[in-house]
Amino acid sequence: MQIPKTIQKLIESFEKLPGVGPKTAQRLTFYLLHVPQTELDEFALSLSSLKKKTVICSICNMTDEVNPCTICKNSLRDKTTICVVEQPLDVLALEKNQRFKGLYHVLHGKIDPLNNIGPDEIFISSLLQRLKGKGVSEVILATNPTMEGEATAMYIAKQIKAKDLRVKITRIGRGLPVGADLEYADDITLQRAMEGRSQY
Amino acid sequence: MQIPKTIQKLIESFEKLPGVGPKTAQRLTFYLLHVPQTELDEFALSLSSLKKKTVICSICNMTDEVNPCTICKNSLRDKTTICVVEQPLDVLALEKNQRFKGLYHVLHGKIDPLNNIGPDEIFISSLLQRLKGKGVSEVILATNPTMEGEATAMYIAKQIKAKDLRVKITRIGRGLPVGADLEYADDITLQRAMEGRSQY
């Protein structure tokens, strides 16, 4: 027996999602067969309107429903500090504890030569443009502590220095995460933790 | 910053799927922001038409686009054997190797008293009805080898015997799966494997 076309199509749509294999896609699709039609319609509507109703902020490149985004528009935010992150999800992660009061700049990627992504493919030049305007005193480079993230941070720091912009450049702290075990930490994390030690 | 409503809605739809937590739902949603609109529309269409374009076969309860389903309609299938399974996905699994040539009967569940599912909640009576008609010589009980699956199989076997239907009742083979290791098999599987031994 062939899988019915209607079902097969949905399975294929699910399979395209990251981390969803053929078995999971089948399971999800057959699960949805038992879900009320109203819920399916709601899901479908959310999907088709996802991109139609969202825009990328022209200042910080964050995804939002308004432009400028709610963060850039908020007059209570500290406009002297810009935190540079790779993805919109990173902004949501940092916003969760509501400690950081500054603005963001989303690069929408990282410098990744193996995947043909150079500095011009991500929003670095618009960041430099923002820093040229007066009022920014610190830029926090919060790209991921991976090989590509570190390279991206280094590249941005170099560019800022080369352009002689008078702005403090900092890198987000790297070391042992809360709850970690020294015994199981990898070499480089331990090295970073030692380098990044602070006075008690 | 609050997550934009449009995005939050899609995240919530994903979260309702089995095995998808809040983090995965966020990841999938933000992944879809980079996907072409045509693909999103296709996904949405497949979702909303999933239930509209499928029916449950009035003979075997399999999900298909036609009624009776392609298996029940197929004149080449052996109508003397009926294989009883719990879910439509089980039919697809058995159909994959194209060895079994008989018909199916999908129960759409299993007897599960802890979740308030009794024999009347699943398609057992329609199975007995099918067996009353002439022409069926064997019924293969292929419910899962779990506690509930075994109980369901036992219940069906009892009902068939009680109704004095002249039909051979078999249970799908239970034992060690191909590639397994005796050393790591659990007690009950080993016991079943010994009981189900066959002559060489």
Walk me through the structure.
Two copies of one chain form a homodimer. By secondary structure, chain A is an alpha/beta fold. Chain A has two domains: 5-52, Helicase, Ruva Protein, domain 3 (Orthogonal Bundle); 69-199, Dna Topoisomerase Vi A Subunit, Chain: A, domain 2 (3-Layer(aba) Sandwich). Chain A contains eight helices and six strands, in the order αααββαβαβαβαβα. Chain A has helices at 5-15, 22-32, 37-49, 70-73, 88-95, 125-132, 147-162, 187-195; strands at residues 55-56, 63-64, 81-85, 103-106, 138-141, 168-171. In chain A, the strands form two sheets. In chain A, strands 4-3-5-6 form a four-stranded parallel beta sheet. In chain A, strands 1-2 form a two-stranded antiparallel ribbon. In chain A, helix 1 packs across helix 2. The interface between A and B is large, with 53 and 53 residues.
